[in-house]
Write a structure and sequence with these properties.
Largest sheet: 3 strands, mixed
Strand order of the largest sheet: 1-2-3
Radius of gyration: 31 Å
Oligomer: single chain
Structural class: mainly alpha
Order of helices and strands: HHHHHHHHHEHEEHEHEEH
């Protein structure tokens, strides 16, 4: 009876290692980072393990191998006592079925659907076991280091990049089986949509741009910036097609502290882009020039609208709740 309890415990350990492997390697870096930011219990331990994937996989496979060998040996011992010489064959058949069903398939299926919760639960135990088997893990690591270059030379790997449709399908499958959550799926799909759009698709049209004539009193401008919570705004002369500069709220504050000044003296040069510029290229321009706002011109040279860095980021990650750069 004791032997049966030990055998059951070993099968549970096999399920633990198999399920841990599936759960841990199903988590994306984005999800792990989110758990850390939210200060979820065991999130730091989880991140520590996943940042060392080679060590992690050796640890898990070592544990799984040890418990499966012990379980098979225990089953053989029990079967030989009960059935004599025929017991060995019987134990092999029964243990194959038990390990596949309860030690591999079932825990992996459960772990795919509950990867985040299971990963957080098993992380400290896997870390403890990793330290416990450190000498054995080191030896296996050296063997892997020796064999990996040999295997790499003999195996021809497919170097073709995944196309967009394949990635989208992978994202769909990952979401369906719980490897990605809905927010992560939307973000990845947003990246593909982002590449297909131009400035024309995200601009604030002229009639919605918050801008003032250069002749506007400074007190009025300060009031508009405060009320609209703007960090920068265009300044025009006579009409919007004649933008004379960009006013930064911080420049206005600094200049005001120094005494009297002319508005034109603190304006920054406006940055223009064509309305058909790809959003990916526009984002590069923002990074290159270290700006957060650009004016968009149409083919006729007239003002088509305004676009901000926030507009671009929202195309990928959704609405940003932050200080407004340009309000409708």
């Amino acid at each position: 009876m004791v032997n049966l309890f030990i055998l059951a415990a070993l099968l549970l350990c096999s399920a633990f290692f198999s399920g841990s492997e599936t759960a841990l390697f199903s988590l994306s870096k984005i999800r792990v980072r989110r758990l850390q930011v939210e200060n979820v219990k065991n999130a730091r331990t989880l991140a520590y393990l996943l940042n060392r994937p080679r060590t992690l996989i050796i640890t898990i496979l070592t544990g799984n191998m040890l418990v499966n060998i012990l379980a098979s040996s225990m089953a053989s011992s029990i079967a030989l006592k009960l059935f004599g010489d025929r017991g060995l064959g019987i134990s092999i058949g029964i243990m194959t079925l038990l390990i596949l069903t309860f030690g591999e398939i079932t825990p992996k299926v459960i772990s795919i659907k509950n990867s985040e919760r299971i990963s957080l639960f098993v992380a400290p135990y896997i870390l403890f076991f990793s330290r416990l088997v450190l000498p054995l893990r080191k030896i296996l690591g050296y063997i892997v280091d020796f064999l990996e270059p040999i295997a790499s030379r003999k195996i021809k790997r497919d170097q073709e990049d995944l196309n967009e449709e394949e990635v989208k399908k992978a994202v769909e499958i990952g979401t369906r089986f719980g490897a990605l959550d809905k927010k992560e799926e939307e973000m990845i799909r947003g990246v593909f949509k982002f590449n297909d759009k131009t400035a024309r698709d995200v601009i604030v049209p002229p009639q919605r741009i918050v801008a003032v004539d250069i002749s506007t009193p400074l007190d009025t401008i300060r009031s508009i910036i405060t009320k609209k919570e703007l960090s920068r705004m265009p300044i025009f002369e006579n009409n919007l097609d004649n933008i004379v500069g960009m006013l930064y709220a911080k420049d206005l504050i600094v200049a005001g502290q120094k005494g009297e000044f002319a508005l034109r003296d603190i304006l920054r040069k406006p940055f223009y882009v064509a309305e058909d510029i790809n959003l990916d290229d526009l984002l590069r321009e923002f990074r290159k020039h270290r700006i957060h706002m650009a004016l968009v011109k149409n083919k006729g040279g007239r003002l088509a609208g305004l676009v901000t860095l926030q507009d671009l980021l929202e195309e990928i990650i959704g609405q940003i709740r932050d200080i407004k750069e340009q309000s409708p």
